[in-house]
Design goal:
Elements: E1 4-8, H1 13-24, E2 28-33, H2 39-42, E3 53-56, H3 62-72, E4 76-79, H4 93-112, E5 118-122, H5 147-166, E6 170-175, E7 178-179, H6 188-200, E8 207-209, E9 215-216, E10 219-220, H7 221-232, E11 240-242, E12 248-249, H8 250-261, E13 266-268, E14 274-276, E15 278-280, H9 298-304, H10 312-330
Parallel strand pairs: 1-2, 1-4, 2-3, 4-5, 5-6, 6-11, 7-10, 8-15
Antiparallel strand pairs: 9-12, 13-14
Helix pairs in contact: 1-7, 3-4, 4-5, 6-8, 6-10, 8-10
The protein binds the ligand C[C@H]1O[C@H](OP(=O)(O)OP(=O)(O)OC[C@H]2O[C@@H](n3cnc4c(=O)[nH]c(N)nc43)[C@H](O)[C@@H]2O)[C@@H](O)[C@@H](O)C1=O.
Length: 331
């Protein structure tokens, strides 16, 4: 029998890679979107047209989410849809908790009504926050530092409690930062790849960023969705950190992007000094983390046999190449 998967948020960065991954192994794919008309084209996923079915469901609309589960009759649910830009969560904490924890509760509740439907919920390294330890494995203390992290921790908690109470195959994928040329530009790596590409083509002179000492653990989104599939299809349900395990600073990422574009980050100024093409704008600076969000992916490696294939340098180079190609195609 053909396996059927429901992906919430199919037009997001991860949704697109996951749909391609599942279609490639013969899984039928149904995805939720806010508005079906032209959704794949708007999401840069025209290649999926005719290959996936779309259902409309806003995260705040519990009835629509339940209907989507009923209509899709999925064997697997990948719950990806969520507001993802962390700074936004400070402005409207209630809506972020509703959209993340509320929708997770709805999806898990709907899955409980169906025999055997497995669910993977994407949570986040933001659940660890002031963990008191770095790198973080699945058992590290969880002390989130943002409303986004609190909401993701509630989602993570719902997965674990409902899994053990109802003895169901519910999984939390604790994803650390993951990127690709499909990442929206307000996230750092795409902002950098696009900015450096524009500098390389002479369209801009400078890149304006926040704190370059901030540490992150970056992987390629295509690798991370592979980990999700392995986790959901394993013999036993469990939670997994999906991360590279390698700490890098924002500055490392900027340097890698300039190197990939073949552009000097530092240029000679008229007075003979050197000028950095990267300028700090306090608007983009966030309070520093005492315990950097770096993952310990040992469990995913040992239990699932998962490891990221794309290196940090390859990821950044792919993003810069893609942004250069976009600029060249538009000119
Ligand atoms: C795991 C987690 O991953 C993502 O959240 P994020 O880490 O907040 O992602 P980002 O790309 O916005 O920031 C990365 C770092 O870069 C620093 N940074 C410096 N200068 C700029 C700057 O100019 N813009 C931005 N956006 N960040 C900057 C910023 O302060 C931070 O230290 C989401 O997918 C989230 O959904 C998620 O779950």
């Amino acid at each position: 029998m053909t396996r059927r998967a429901l992906i919430t948020g199919i037009t997001g960065q991860d949704g697109g890679y996951l749909a391609e991954r599942l279609l490639a192994d013969g899984t039928e794919v149904v995805g939720t979107v806010r508005r079906a008309d032209g959704a794949l084209e708007r999401g840069g996923l025209a290649q999926l047209a005719g290959r996936v079915a779309l259902l409309e469901a806003e995260l705040g609309d519990a009835d629509a989410l339940r209907r989507a589960v009923d209509e899709a009759q999925p064997d697997e649910i990948y719950h990806l849809a969520a507001p993802t830009f962390v700074p936004d969560s400070w402005r409207d904490p209630r809506s972020v908790v509703e959209a993340i924890a509320g929708a997770t509760g709805t999806i898990l509740g709907a899955a409980l009504e169906r025999d055997g439907t497995r669910v993977l919920v994407v949570t986040s390294s933001e659940i660890f926050g002031d963990a008191g330890v770095s790198p973080q494995a699945e058992g590290a203390p969880m002390r989130p530092r943002s409303p986004y992290g609190v909401a993701k921790l509630a989602a993570h908690g719902l997965v674990g409690t409902l899994r053990s109470h109802h003895d169901r195959f519910f999984v939390s994928a604790i994803t650390f930062n993951h990127e690709s040329p499909r990442r929206p530009e307000r996230f750092l790596p795409r902002k950098v790849s696009r900015g450096v590409a524009r500098i390389a083509r002479g369209l801009e002179d400078e890149l304006t960023l926040g704190d370059q000492r901030a540490v992150r653990d970056w992987s390629h989104a295509a690798d991370v969705v592979d980990g999700m599939v392995l986790a959901l299809r394993h013999d036993e349900p469990g939670d997994y950190v999906l991360a590279s395990g390698e700490p890098r600073t924002v500055g490392d990422l900027v340097d890698a992007a300039f190197a990939a574009a073949g552009v000097d980050r530092h240029v000679a100024a008229a007075d003979g000094s050197t000028r950095d093409r990267v300028r700090v704008d306090p608007r983009f600076v966030r309070p520093p983390e005492q315990w950097p969000p770096v993952g310990d992916p040992s469990r995913a490696r040992e239990v699932l046999g998962w490891r990221p294939r794309v290196t940090f340098e390859e990821l950044v180079a792919e993003m810069v190449r893609a942004d250069l190609a976009l600029l060249d195609a538009a000119s």
